[in-house]
Write a structure and sequence with these properties.
This protein is α/β, with parallel strands linked by helices. The chain contains 8 helices and 7 strands. The protein has a 7-stranded mixed beta sheet with strand order 3-2-1-4-5-7-6, sandwiched between helices. Helix 1 packs parallel to helix 4. The termini are far apart. The N terminus is likely disordered.
Length: about 230
Amino acid sequence: MEPATHPSSVETAPRDLSSEEQSYYTVNRAEWAWFSRYYDAVTRPLRQLRGEVVAAVAAPPGSRILDVATGTGEQALAFAPGASEVIGLDMSEAMLAIARRKERPPNVDFVLGDAAQLPFPAGRFDVACISFALHEMPPSIRDQVVREMARVTRHGGTLAIVDYALPPGRIVRSIIPRLIGLYERPYYAAFVRSDLPALLEGAGVAVRSDRRAFWGNARILVGDKVA
């Protein structure tokens, strides 16, 4: 059976970018074009976490789900059972090319687009999720992405953020962030110390749960859109 048909890319109006924001888009597109071929192998340890995210979100059967910064589509595919529709969005053509080559059920599709300017109408989805992407973004883009996720989620729907966290324990906390920071630059260090619940609340989302995962090195925040 063929996957459901959706536009593979959607044009959105251009917007003014600061030099920092422009650098983010330029550098990330180039890096992901190169890294896409290795991404699934490198992120293999996260496969169990994908299921934990699905359990934490607890989307009702028949939900319409948006997976922002989907990469090669692993989280989108994890959401597929029981959903009526899952759309994975990413700004990397190379990553999406790999996602589209994977076996997928007919309720899953992948779309090229900018997470800071989502090409969907307000209230389009029951659930919007983003995994391991916000830490790569300048704060201005990070804030805009969360606001956009809230915009396209219906009132009473669910938003989820999955990303790095400061690990527990003084010794581990002094080592792990430094190791991760060697390749997750330049926003990682500030991100793991940022107030993610406040970021969600500022977008009109009430945090429902905030749990640690991946041996304390990641967190899964789930909230309900209330405004």
